[in-house]
Amino acid sequence: LAYSNKRLFMNFSHKISTHVVWDIEKAKVDWDKNKLFIVERVIERGTFENFKYIERYYGKNIMGNIVKKLPCLTAKDIAFVHTYFNIPLIELKCYKEGILKVCRTV
After folding, report:
1. What percentage of the chain exceeds 90 in pLDDT?
2. Strand partners, 99
3. C-alpha dihedral (21, 22, 28, 32), degrees to nearest 10
4. Model pTM above 0.85
5. CB within 8 A of 57, min separation 6: which ones?
6. Strand, helix or coil at 15?
7. Lowest mean pLDDT among 21-25, 49-53, 80-84
8. Which of 70, 13, 68, 15 is nearest to 41 (CA)?
9. DSSP 87
10. Which residues have a Cβ under 8 Å from the Cβ of 63 and sit 6 or more positions away?
């Protein structure tokens, strides 16, 4: 993991906005097993501060690889991840045959 002291990070996990994971108990989240879920939720519903916390935990490269696997994003989120991670649109799963697959609206 990118974050050198996992235990210290878990003390900060309470800073992930409650509305990001409203349907689960944050204390019981396995941050390693559920990477895709956490990254997707933070991109969809989190603040930039939430985003930076999980980036510190997983690392930018791992997050970029996770983002490539997300099946759909809002147009705003697609633009953000494309720019932030410098990922060609064609490498995003939500990009199919030159058409962006936008599954949610803001």
Report:
1. 37
2. 96
3. -10
4. no
5. 1, 2, 3, 9, 31
6. helix
7. 21-25
8. 70
9. -
10. 39, 54, 55, 85
Residues 6+ apart with CB under 8 A from 81: 43, 67, 73, 87, 92
Q: How many residues does the chain have?
A: 106
Owner of token pair 């996770």:
66
Place of tokens 């800073």: 15
Partners of residue 102 on adjacent β-strands: 73
104 neighbors 76 (Cβ within 8 angstroms): no
Q: Which of 72, 71, 54 is nearest to 63 (CA)?
A: 54
Question: CA Rg, the chain, in Å?
Answer: 14
